[in-house]
Amino acid sequence: MSTLKEALAKRIPEWRKEIADLLAAHGDTVISQVTMRQAYGGMRGVKGLVCDTSLVDPYKGLTIRGTPIDQLADRSAEEILFLLLVGELPNQDELKHLKQNLFVRSEVPDYVWKILRDMPHTAHPMDMLITAITTLEEESVFRRKYDEGMKKDEYWEPALEDSLNLLAKLPALAAGVYRIRYDKGDLILPDPKLDWAANYAHMLGNDTADFLDLMRLYMVLHSDHEGGNVSAFTAHVVASALSDPYYAVAAGLAGLAGPLHGLANQECLKFVLGVIDRFGGAPTPKQMEEYTWEVLNSGRVVPGYGHAVLRATDPRFTAFHAFGKKHFPDDPAFETVAVGFEVIPKVLQEHGKAANPWPNVDAGSGAILHHYGITEMRYYTVLFSVSRAMGMCSQLVLSRAMGEPITRPKSVSTAWMKDQVAQPAGA
Ligand code: HAX
Predict the structure, then answer these.
(1) Model pTM?
(2) Which CATH number applies to 264-371: 3.40.640.10, 3.40.50.300, 1.10.230.10, 1.10.3720.10?
(3) Which ligand 1 atom minimizes the distance to the CA of 355?
(4) Which of 76, 139, 173, 268 could lock onto 304 through a cystine, CB 3.0 to 4.6 A?
(5) Atom of ligand 1 nearest to the CA of 260
(6) C-beta of 222 in contact with ligand 1 (< 6 A)
(7) Cα 411 vs. chain centroid, distance in angstroms?
(8) Average pLDDT for 166-172
């Protein structure tokens, strides 16, 4: 049976040559310029990174290896992982092998459960997930092989091994975080007949066909979002120091746990429930407008709206919206998100600050989870994390395969900036 590793091993020499040829011929070509505003402004728009797994077009949104995300919404997470890494979808044989391979690696050692159970009962679920991952670092093959003196050419192999081991365990780990943190009873064992995403749903404790489908969609939509977002970039930088994938993914997830990034889904449901609470159900457009202005006038951001790169409605929002519309159009939380979509972009345009007034992926996902009984909103970023780990791992395996060096941009001081624009004495 052919494997993901074999498929990747075939592609790597081609890609290495492609990059070497490009650099030999055009290595000194300028691809970006940096203004002072960009240096002080989160490096927005600076092109100084390469990511081949996915790309975000400001108007069309996410494409994975060139395919728009809405055309991949019916695929399994395993297919997406293969696509991210290898650049093409797996054949039946490769897919079957990957599913089995992930299942075989999925058992979580007891010492991890012990640590999670010993954590304070008030711990944030993201703290628990990150702790579980750093605890699992004990298993790192990359670190062991590095200590044994592996060659640079070989780095990608144990990076892939660690990535597959970690990804295989993540659904069980994340479901365990949910069940331990929220007293949901015993842990549930995975079912060998289910795929990776459906097993996550099953281990959370909901085996209905709709919820399994939702988890499949959720895991695909959040899987990757090019290289410059906080979590991907953080994981990339940490892995560039040859820290192993457990450290890199844990670091990336610490970034995802920020309210301007992955934690926004938690904030979004808080916003939606606040609206429902205030108006006793889904609001009218007028009420939604009033509420949104209140949030803005109190100096807060409207969660789920705006984006550092996108300048149109996020196709991932559209996919979630279509799911909600099909399965539960009358749910008050879904209706509230729908009214928000009608009203909030206009309010943000009138407010005049946000460069992008349109919804991002987080605007509606919480309302959908809420419908299926996952009401513990502090847990939502964990779901995002399980999926996004696929992107982080794929990117770091490819970075090692391409022999990328340690990341180290140059910083400058404000005094240096002032010197650049100082008039010569007497001018
Ligand atoms: N509500 C109110 N104000 C907003 C806003 C929003 N949804 N989005 C942007 N703005 C404001 C910014 O706070 C900024 O204000 P100041 O000049 O006073 O600092 C101004 O508009 C310009 O910001 P921008 O250039 O449009 O946006 P950034 O690239 O700086 O930031 C963010 C992008 C996603 C962080 C921003 O739009 C935001 O805070 N959105 C709400 C939080 C959110 O939904 N985050 C999830 C994003 C998707 C993601 O990463 N998921 O993981």
Answers:
(1) 0.95
(2) 1.10.230.10
(3) 26
(4) 268
(5) 45
(6) no
(7) 27
(8) 98
